[in-house]
Amino acid sequence: MTPLKTAHLSSGKSEIEIFSEPALERICEFVQAAAYSSSIMITSSTLYSLYGSNLAAALSTRLPCRSICVPNGEEAKTLEMANKCWIAMKQGQLDRRSVVISLGGGTVSDLAGFVAGTYMRGIPLLSVPTTLLGMVDAALGGKCGINLQQSKNLIGIFNFPEKILISLDYLASLPDRELRSGLAEVIKYGIICEPKLFEYVENQLAAILEKERTALKEVIYHSCVTKIEITEKDERDLEGIRARLNFGHTLGHALEELTGYSTFVHGEAISIGMCFAARVSLALGFASEKFVQRIENLILRAGLPIRLPKEIDSTKVFELMRGDKKAIKGKIKLILVKELGQAFQQEDVSPTLILEVIDNLKG
Ligand SMILES: NC(=O)c1ccc[n+]([C@@H]2O[C@H](COP(=O)([O-])OP(=O)(O)OC[C@H]3O[C@@H](n4cnc5c(N)ncnc54)[C@H](O)[C@@H]3O)[C@@H](O)[C@H]2O)c1
Fold this sequence. Notes:
Layout: E1 5-9, E2 12-19, H1 24-33, E3 39-44, H2 45-59, E4 65-70, H3 79-91, E5 99-104, H4 106-118, E6 125-129, H5 132-138, E7 143-148, E8 151-158, E9 163-167, H6 176-192, H7 195-209, H8 213-233, H9 249-258, H10 266-283, H11 289-301, H12 314-322, E10 334-339, E11 342-346, H13 351-360
Parallel strand pairs: 2-9, 3-4, 3-5, 5-6, 6-9
Antiparallel strand pairs: 1-2, 7-8, 10-11
Helix pairs in contact: 1-2, 3-4, 4-5, 5-6, 5-8, 6-7, 6-10, 7-8, 9-10, 9-12, 10-11, 10-13, 12-13
Nicotinamide-adenine-dinucleotide binds next to helix 2, helix 4, helix 5, strand 7 and helix 6.
């Protein structure tokens, strides 16, 4: 099969395939052709019973295969879980031609990418995302890592999978809330650099939420292409180009952290973060009220939140934003927008204005 999109990177290439069929045969075919010496599948218990056990059985007829299950959600992204994986890799006598297979959403791919990239200074990684968010974002782009206490993604590396196999079939079992969460990142690409993708989501929202395959394939394909193209231009996030992908994430991450990763799923926190960034853009005269309303309308129609819960402590959100990885000397960097497709980084937004917009965003 011809890869759908290949990312050309300083470390080699990362190939993406998107298909409608179940992934099992394609995964087996790929590991066999690559002649890996052995494998370890990292997944969650939910995904192991849905898909992982069949995959492990099929893989074990081709090469030695171990499986390790980590908890669902952010509890997977801990040093304890990374340690559990490294120990399993050692016990399985994985070598530098062994492959780590990540089967799961963004939390699993963040952890699996991290352990694959650090074990023996890096062994091959095959990523099989099972959430929309994983397919359009987390499994691409090479960023992976774990949380440090409550601090999101503070420990991490860049590690690109050799292959990313995206099967739409997995989305059949994905809960609606998780589908909507992934859609938040698609809407983000539309806002920051792909007006046509934004318009497509506006027009085809019902079909996407109904999981119609043509519509899903369209949004996944265009999101992948967008993320890969941005990543290729700024692989290590040093040029300010990749920073645009953080639109909505400074407040979003702070909110996730403040609520202990239990109130919002990732895309929901990012949705509120995007409304915040759009409202800062409006307050500074960069964006029009009409444009901000258009953004909020789509987010709302997608079943995602646009307002902060009333009980959220604005000062605490602000303090967490100052501790964001992107902040330098406590100065918050924000990605703002002018119009669809026009996003830019702003470093000197006044703390008073930030606090004011946070307060006004409560609903
Ligand atoms: N590395 C990156 O570039 C990047 C980008 C965006 C997000 N992320 C990270 O991704 C994480 C969020 O990922 P996520 O939204 O995929 O959440 P997730 O990995 O927690 O998965 C969400 C839930 O869906 C379940 N699930 C997954 N696939 C399923 C399927 N096919 N059927 C049924 N249930 C399924 C999981 O078991 C889990 O309970 C966050 O930690 C975020 O920081 C990373």
